[in-house]
Amino acid sequence: MANNQKVIITSDLRADMRSVLDGRAPESIYILADETTNKQCLPALMDACPELKACKVCVIGAGDTHKHLDTLASVWQFLSENGATRRSTMINVGGGMVTDLGGFAASTFKRGMSYINVATTLLGAVDAAVGGKTGINFNGLKNEIGVINSSEAVVIDTEFFSTLDHANKVSGMAEMLKHGLISNAEEWRKVSSFDMEKFDLKELRPLLASSIAVKERIVEEDPTEKNIRKALNFGHTFGHAFESFSHEKGTPALHGYAVAWGMIPELYLSHVLLGFDKNILSQAVRLIRETYGVMSITCDNYDHLFELMTHDKKNVVKDEINFTLLGGIGDIRINQHASRKLIDEAFDFYRDSMGL
Ligand code: GLY
Fold first, then answer.
1. From first to last of its 356 residues, what are the pLDDT tens digits of the chain?
2. What architecture (CATH level 2) is domain 6-163?
3. CATH 1.20.1090.10 domain position(s) in the chain
4. Which residues pair with 320 in a beta bridge?
5. Nearest alpha-carbon partner for 52 in 76, 18, 86
6. Whose CA is nearest to atom 2 of ligand 1?
7. Which of the 8 DSSP states describes residue 253?
8. CATH 3.40.50.1970 in the chain, residues?
9. Is 20 exposed, middle or buried (0-12, 13-18, 19+ CB in 10 A)?
């Protein structure tokens, strides 16, 4: 499976799409969008690149509930009925749901056709669209079925982010904060000082480029997540538990919010177990609380949150929860473990930090 992909943060969508498509005939290109990007992004993409108007378009429902086998089957059906071949190309226009599902559909149709991601959300651009993870949810489990197979290219036009509401912008920013913490002090300084109230997309562009480069370097070193790619899970072990819990309570949190909250207990474990600097911990806590607000938990929820962490199969090795922690900014320590007592202490720390 291919693992090298071009990532283009475009300032000329027409020229960059042309160069990526490299003379491919419109009949050999199939476009996947969801109901939102079909309305909000596809018209602009087709204006920039009129030859795409001749391509067949498949529109799927928006949202994670559609990251489902039935939707995948409908995309395979669309490709089959419209004569796609192994030499065809799929263009996925959307956030993480579309690029994950579309990437999987393309990677498996006729044993694999090429695909290009046009990332339309900040979260997708900085994470899902890059690095080749594709798949669908199955049997109630997230990303249970999929393959790692990179797109040929990821094209990012930050203009598309202007249709996002503030919450979706800062949700994407959480993965950039994570990239800052797992890379180096300068990257952390840049992302942590970005004005998230103003959220100027021009100012975001250089930050986005260096943040994506953090992920690219890691994926290049370990595309199949045998070791250092686990660094990208920082904040996600607690974060996924917070995310699932928020869904159970009927107040679903955006993924980035849950990851931001998850970084607080994981920074605490990093401090206690590996000596992560207390001042940077406090700075991160302040920033997260100010930007993402508070998700309320009580000590009565600890058992259940712990259970949710153990359900996340990716985190559990031989009955122990596997954390990626940090000895300092950029000092990545994968395969770390913490006692149940310390995990409860990390929940206490989260509650104290959030004033709960
Ligand atoms: N989203 C984490 C990764 O791509 O490995």
1. 445 789 999 999 999 999 999 999 999 999 999 999 999 999 999 999 999 999 999 999 999 999 999 999 999 999 999 999 999 999 999 999 999 999 999 999 999 999 999 999 999 999 999 999 999 999 988 899 999 999 999 999 999 999 999 999 999 999 999 999 999 999 999 999 999 999 999 999 999 999 999 999 999 999 999 999 999 999 999 999 999 999 999 999 999 999 999 999 999 999 999 999 999 999 999 999 999 999 999 999 999 999 999 987 677 776 789 999 999 999 999 999 999 999 999 999 999 999 99
2. 3-Layer(aba) Sandwich (3.40)
3. 171-194+222-353
4. 317
5. 18
6. 232
7. P
8. 6-163
9. buried
Considering the entire predicted model, what is its pTM? Answer: 0.95
Contacting residues for 67 by C-beta, under 8 A, at least 6 apart? 97, 100, 101, 136, 137
Which of the listed residues 7, 123, 127, 240 should we mutate to test ligand 1's pocket, taking the one with most ligand atoms within 8 A of CB? 127
Is the domain spanning 171-194+222-353 CATH 1.20.1090.10? The answer is: yes
Q: Which amino acid is at 255?
A: H
Q: Is the CB of 127 under 6 A from ligand 1?
A: yes
